[in-house]
Design a protein that fits this description.
Length: 223
Amino acid sequence: MIDGLHLSGPLSGIFARWYEKDIRVYSGGPALFLDRDGVIVEDTHYLSSPGDISFIPGVAEALRSLRDLNIPVIVVTNQAGIGKGYYGWDAFAAVQKHINDYVRDQGGFISGCVACPYHPEGKNPYRHGNHPFRKPNPGMILWALKSANIDRSGSWLAGDKLSDLQAGALAGLAGLAHVSTGQGKKEAGIAESWSGKRTDVIFVDSLKEVVMRFIKMIKGLRD
């Protein structure tokens, strides 16, 4: 049994887990939502083994600075590889544990993780044409916001794909950051076209720069 995997109810088939012992510490405050592959770790296309993990430079330092300010970091990740039968939840859990352990060893902390395996080309029971938790839909983010009473008006999302930005926008987050790592350079054009004149979208090189700007905003609100 995978801790965090829901087998029934509205979260059926979804992995949704808090790693913080008491999520009430986040109530009323902002959070940083992160896509995983291409933002925290290199996108190896269906990452399924801890041995294939390669952390993007600057990630550990960035997440450590958020921990110092008690700002939760929440991973929201589509996991089509599970839906298509390429690997199972055991493999996902092993990869996520390795990521969590590394970040914690470096002084940071991943507060929670939500993963959606549903995909239009998935195998049963994960075949779904438009699951509300699969990005660009906002279901994973909305669940986390409600679960921990997080302030969406001060929260940001960082991702390397247009679907990440769209999910954050639909969830009503205050800021959206498109990074150049992962698929970011490939998707920059369509992301820029989509963002248009939106003032809540920034384009940066990596998560490290996202966190620098996010912290500057948070400190401005707290002063």
